[in-house]
Amino acid sequence: MKKLLSIVSLLFCLNSFAFYQGKFTIQNKKKSDKIHFQLINNLIIIPVEVNGIELSFILDTGVSKTIIFNYLNVSDSLIIKDPEPIYLRGLGEGESVEALKSRNNIFKVGDAINMSQDLFAVFNENINFTPRLGIPIHGIVGYDLFKDLVIEINYSNKYIKLTQPEKFNYKKCNNCETLNLEFYNNKPYLNASVKIENKEIPIKLLIDSGGSDALWLFEDEALGIKHSNKYFNDFLGHGLSGSVYGKRSKIDEISLQGFVLKNSNVAFPDSSSISFAKQFKDRNGSLAGNILKRFNMIVNYQKATLTIKKNSLFKQDFSYNKSGIELVHDGVRFIKEKDYSNSNNKNILASEDVQNRNKIILDFNYKLTLKPAYAIAELRENSPAFNAGLKVGDVVLSINGKSTHQFTLQDLMLKFYDKEGTRIKLSIERDGKVFSVYFNLENLFE
User: Fold this and answer.
1) What's phi and psi for 411, nearest 5 deg?
2) Interval 393-425: pLDDT, tens
């Protein structure tokens, strides 16, 4: 019989199951291994190996089971073992999606190996983070790795260090804070406090390294958790069951024991999109990547502690998208480029100016190369981009005179986080026609 699973997290996460699976152990003499990661849109992307196939996964404290959600793109080479059909449901207002529960997989992260790992493979081609992050992303891993190992996350130098718990030694740190963790459905929570309209409010937050925002709060009038008068409605993320929308605003500050972050970004998701996330009644929201990245940390599930130390990103300003555009990687385009590889065999057209004895030489050696294409996937209503006439599906060819294929998706999106008043010129392709659009970035909190 097919089973129904609930998924709750910034993007999605699974409820726990009571069946046995193997443990991660580190297969070297030191019982420790360092792995470098990519930090994209505040998310940690690590290399993993599943049944001998090299893949890329998001490291997410907010999930309790390991998921392959780009299954269709790797199914030709990846063998999913002992599959059993199930249904998954998550954030968003859409329907459940079909997946496979798979046992006895060999899962490798650096020198850490689990010889009997359970996986959940999603069929739905819409559950695919690759277009939204701009690099291949095949899945997500969380609790299964954290429960077995002590994991140091160094956001500033972009590496994680995995250590067997019995071999881990804490170094003396006068500038660190250690927070106690609580667990619900195998997901970690911590106590914090926020100041909203000069009122100090204690809160309990899911630690969600798989979320790119800074902070999500669930509105609660009785507790005083509410958005200010300065807010705007926006797209917050894409869950397993569809897009999530809500209000973006600012709070006075958030405190993690002795560490205080002022004027932090905050999002208040629509209640209809997070009904599963609120099953833990004591939960008030999520602490996500845009705050977590400001600390280097030691995550120790065995001792139920999180040790944090602020890093070079701590004082980075909290910015936000002032354009209203969300771009995705939308396949590839043929780009005409000068070909310098065949300099000895050029097609030359020469023209001689008889009076001045000058020659004009034109080189017509070009080549067509495939480059990434970027399209508008979300467009905030009444935003500068919306009011300039842009539409979902428009392909962005250039920004401020530079071809978009010269940028990564993340670098391209960062241009929309620039200072208010910054002039943006986009070259757009729509229905085979190319035209230019102009707008200024806008401060929505004034």
Assistant:
1) -65, -35
2) 999 999 999 999 999 999 999 999 999 999 999
Chosen CATH of 325-337+369-440 out of 1.20.120.80, 3.40.50.970, 2.160.20.10, 2.30.42.10: 2.30.42.10
**Parallel/antiparallel/unpaired status of strands 53-59 and 139-141:** parallel
205-247 residue pLDDT tens:
999 999 999 999 999 989 999 988 889 999 888 766 567 889 9
CA distances from residue 17 to 12, 20, 143, 356 in whole angstroms, order as listed: 16, 9, 12, 85
Using CA atoms of 412, 416, 421, 422 in order, give the dihedral in degrees to the nearest 10: 0
The domains of the chain are located at 4-167, 177-310, 325-337+369-440
Fold of 177-310: Cathepsin D, subunit A; domain 1 (2.40.70)
- Average pLDDT (40-57) is 95
- Separation CA 315–CA 311 (nearest Å): 9
445 with 230: CB under 8 angstroms? yes
Mean of the per-residue pLDDT values for the chain?
A: 84
Q: What is the pLDDT of residue 341?
A: 61
Q: Are 243 and 378 in contact (CB under 8 A)?
A: yes
Q: Do domains 4-167 and 177-310 have the same CATH topology?
A: yes
Q: Percent of the chain beyond pLDDT 90?
A: 61
**Residue 166: helix, strand or coil by DSSP?**
helix
Residue 179 predicted with pLDDT over 80: yes
Bridge partners of 66, per DSSP, are: none
Closest listed residue to residue 12, CA positions, set 309, 211, 173 = 211
Closest CA to 23 of 134, 164, 151, 166: 164
Q: Rounded to two decimals, what is the model's pTM?
A: 0.85
> Which residue is it, tokens 């996500």?
288
Q: Which CATH architecture has domain 4-167?
A: Beta Barrel (2.40)
| Per-residue pLDDT at 15 | 37
- Answer whether 404's CB lies under 8 Å from 427's CB: no
Show the tokens assigned to 361. 């030489």
d(CA 129, CA 140): 10
DSSP structure string for 37-98: -EEETTEEEEEEEETTEEEEEEE-TT-SS-EES-HHHHTTTPPPPSEEEEEEE-SSSS--EE
